[in-house]
Amino acid sequence: MSDAIGRYPALRRMTIVEVPSLRVRELTLAAGQRVPWHFHTHVTERFFCMEGSMQVLTRDPDRAHVLGPGQVCTVEPGVPHQVSGVEAGACKFMSVQGVGKYDFVRTGE
User: Fold this and answer.
1) What angle is formed at CA 44 by the lines to CA 38 and CA 50, rounded to 5 degrees?
2) pLDDT by residue (tens digit) across 93-107?
3) Are strands 12-19 and 22-29 parallel, antiparallel or unpaired?
4) Cβ atoms of 108 and 3 closer than 8 Å
5) Predicted model pTM
6) Is residue 20 part of a domain?
7) The domain containing residue 18 runs over which residues?
8) What is the pLDDT of residues 36-64, one digit of tens each?
9) What CATH number should be reported for the domain holding residue 48?
C-alpha cells in the first residue's frame, strides 16, 4: 500500500522545504505517537534529533538507532523503518528526504 502523504498522528508537522526531488520536515511526536513502519522507494531519509530522545528502528538490517539532540542517522531507500520517542516519550526531529521522487510505502508491520 502506497501513501504519498503518509498520514499518521503527530503533535506537530512543519514542512520547511518541498521541491520535486527534496523534502525537509520538522516533526514533533507526543508521548505514545510514532511514525509507522514504512519505506521509501527512491529517497534516502536522514533524521536529525532536535529535542528529547528518539529511536529509528530498521529492518533488513534489523537495528535500533537511538538518537539524542544533535545526533543523526540515515536510512537508505528500500529499508523499512519506524520512528518514535525512546520508551514512547516525546521527541522533535528533522527529516530530510531526497534526492529523488518521494513516496511513503507502509509495510503493514
Assistant:
1) 85
2) 999 999 999 999 999
3) antiparallel
4) no
5) 0.90
6) yes
7) 12-106
8) 999 999 999 999 999 999 999 999 889 99
9) 2.60.120.10
